[in-house]
Amino acid sequence: MKKLLLAVAACLPMTLMAAQKNDARIISAGNGITEIIYTLGAGEQVIAVDSTSNFPDEVNKLPKLGYHKALSAEGILALQPDLLVGTNDMGPDTTITQLEMAGLDIASYPVKDSAENIKERITALADLLGREEQGKALWSSISADLNKAKEIASDKKKPKVIFLLAMGNRSPSISGGETGANALINMAGGVNPAEKQFTSYKPLSTEALLAMSPDVILFSDRGRGTTVDQLLDIQPALKQTPAGKNRRVINLDGRLLLGGLGPRTGETVLRLARAFYKTEH
Question: What is the pLDDT of residues 114-160, one digit of tens each?
Fold first, then answer.
């Protein structure tokens, strides 16, 4: 196998023709990358994924090779793949070096929480897999939904929206700036009061949460099936916020935020915009 190293910074790979074969055996690391591959119609080529890749449901029937930042060269090479595709933070570096030395083609892409980055990854992967037309159609669909969401939010007062990770009876972690959740809130026409206070995720006191006074609460319970009523009972402080009092609490699939925003971003942002602004149009 020839070695394939992609232009990571620009997300525009110099692709070898060998990697475009429809029968290439692919290992995908990063849920956002995996979702794009499947949406482009190349899912049948995927032979294994990392532990963050759990959508669509078909990937859960495949071998899981652990967390994308803690991959094993031995486990990957044992499956005899033609191509490893993932985000540019997959690793560790020693594993990537071993795979390169073994002659495995590796394609890595930078992940940023923006619509432009989604387009870049779709375009690059479509080119890599020889599915350029599918890539154009996919981005066109996502872009149309994003534009509809922007129209809904145009010239309206932005609601304050927070995203929290429900952690049972423990204090939930709130998303700040530089997160996928914050990007979704902004794309849908909301404003995250935590965006300028901190980056990543941070547990907050009841006082700090109440001070944010969110109009809408988004939450993910990481697949535990928590209902809105259960969440409000577990976290009674939420009932004191405008969102809790008006039951404007929305469960968001946490898989959307793993490994970079992916193909479902457009439909999700449009759904959120309609919920934020209470419209069906």
Answer: 999 999 999 999 999 999 999 999 999 999 999 999 999 998 999 99
Q: Per-domain residue ranges for the chain? A: 17-130, 157-276
**Contact partners, residue 226, CB within 8 Å, separation at least 6:** 166, 219, 234, 251
Angle among Cα 59, 63, 67 to the nearest 5 degrees reads: 90
Q: Are strands 26-29 and 46-49 parallel, antiparallel or unpaired?
A: parallel
Q: Which residue has the tokens 């070096």?
A: 97
pLDDT tens, position by position, 17-62:
444 456 799 999 999 999 999 999 999 999 999 999 999 999 999 9
Backbone angles phi, psi at 162, to 5 degrees: -120, 155
The token pair at 268 is 């999700």
pTM: 0.88
User: Domain 157-276 maps to which CATH number in 3.20.20.70, 3.60.150.10, 3.40.50.1980, 3.40.50.1240?
Assistant: 3.40.50.1980
Beta-carbon contacts of residue 266 (< 8 Å; ≥ 6 apart): 141, 142, 143, 144, 145, 146
C-alpha span between 160 and 95 (Å, rounded): 43
17-130 CATH:
3.40.50.1980
Asked if 17-130 and 157-276 have one fold, the answer is yes
